[in-house]
Task: structure prediction
Amino acid sequence: MSTPNPIQPWLELIGVIVGFLLGEGSRLTRRYWQIHRNKQLVKVELKAILAQLPYKKDILNQAITSMRGGRLLPMIRVRVLAIGYQSVHEELYPHLSDVQRHCLHVIYERLRVADQFMDSFEDNFTKAIREKMFPDPWAVYIGKTEEILESYKVVEELAKSYLSCKPIDVFGIEQEGS
Result:
């Protein structure tokens, strides 16, 4: 009969601890890379949005010019690319600073509002004329379209600030904390 080795239980315990640490280390590493990939996805998407903005501004400018000439130009366009942000923002949310979260929120909400405006523009405009909702619907809708154009300028500024790793503090929260 062999004598029990007093080191054997300690080796087994050390093996369990090392196995646990390796498993947790692997899980944490995968999680870190997933967060990193999601942040990169948002940045790539913001770059694509910046590339789309001149096209969208041109459509708005053409619509304004047409309305000033008494003509209606339907705003046929492609929606802004926001699938990446929508798919990862909940997971990414805790890993962003307040300033980053707010900056992205304002960017994507302004884009959503602009898309809604452009989607419903023709129907809303013709309804306003038909139902005589405003004394001068042309002026009202030129003004609304100019507001969307200005909103795109804000989106451009915010997106560039985010991409340069210096997001604009849109709600002034850093100043409040000082």
